[in-house]
Amino acid sequence: MAPMSAPVSSDRPFLNRRLAAFGTTIFAEMSALAARTGSINLGQGFPDTDGPAQIAEAASRAVLTGLGNQYPPGPGVPELRTAIAAHQQRFYGLRHDPDTEVLVTAGATEAIAASLLALLEPGDEVIALEPYYDSYAACIAMAGATRVPVTLRPHDGGFVLDLDELRAAVTPRTRLLLLNTPHNPTGTVLTADELTAIAALAVERDLLVVTDEVYEHLVFEGSHLPLAGFPGMRERTVTISSAGKTFSFTGWKVGWITAPPALVSAVRSAKQFLTYVSSGPFQYAVAEALQLPDDYYEAFRADLAAKRDILADGLASAGFQVFRPQGTYFITTDITPLGEKDGLAFCRALPERCGVVAIPNSVFYDDKSAGAAQVRWAFCKKTEVLEEAAERLRRL
């Protein structure tokens, strides 16, 4: 059989031009580099231990008793939708109808994609905080909309949002604000004053808001405040979260949105043509996970806070400028004190230099110069792994 090739009459590339600029994700590249060199992988943000055994047992029980082995309902199984609504009421005092205001997705990644594909059209502008999770840019591009970054800038040991810059970025074409708090990769947690100002702007300019809140239970300083709870925001906000980060079962890919019925209906219209449904048995397990007592959430947060400090102290000892995060499980550092200025080259060379893998923040920026010397590290690993990584980094 002759080898397959592109049609001879066409020079058009196979890949849709909207996605041509994205290529393979940096996470895939760096994880492959970690595997090839036997390095400690502090790049991709996944834990190296599983979540609670009782929740894993709940998933096993669901499979063995036939719960979710066939297509689950499109919006998600009723048990999980009810548990999500109860979670929002329990932690934030937000009331949602589980039948009309909750939608289960294949992780937060699909929730983001479905929300942006549903709510955007070509010509719309989307304001996103920069640096941003890489799927934001790809999903905005797939929707045919235009990305307008507003940069979080280093200040006083952290990264801060300039509210005047945010306001100035809004134009008559702005359709949607895409927010992430707690923020990956900087670890910034937006304050009540900042969220109040964002809410006032959204109401004034009649903007939709999509909020990525997957790290809601990993706030070490301050507290997480959902934007949907601020005046005027309930009817215009799609709130996204997931089980992967909170319960350390990232491979299950169970996420969700909460929003008023009209927004849920719009997002579901896009979601049904992406995965249709997913993660049937795991949905039942996550429904049980969301009902875990407060001491689970408190211990989880305390464990990650201790790990944050181990890695942050190790990075500081190795000579990095460390931005100690208020939330998430990532630390951003500046490499210029080490005499370096190119984060991408630094990360590609790091495995050979000391056997550790990290992620260059420049891939999360439109303004590459703003993040050129920044590197992100994940601390959602075993304590002994973080201690070994810190020891290796001291060789720099």
In angstroms, what separates the terminal alpha carbons?
54 Å
| Proportion of residues in extended strands | 15-25%
- Mean pLDDT value: 95
Rg calc: 21 Å
Low-confidence segments = none
**Biggest sheet descriptor:** 7 strands, mixed
SS elements, strand count: 15
Identify the quaternary structure here: single chain
What letter string, H or E per element, gives the SSE order? HEHHEHEHEEEHEHEEHEHHHEEHEEEH
Structural class by secondary-structure content: alpha/beta
Number of contiguous helices: 13
List the helices and strands and how they pair.
Elements: H1 26-37, E1 40-41, H2 53-64, H3 78-92, E2 102-105, H4 107-119, E3 125-130, H5 134-142, E4 146-151, E5 153-155, E6 158-160, H6 163-169, E7 174-180, H7 192-204, E8 208-212, E9 237-242, H8 243-247, E10 255-258, H9 261-271, H10 280-289, H11 294-317, E11 321-323, E12 330-334, H12 343-354, E13 356-357, E14 359-360, E15 374-378, H13 383-393
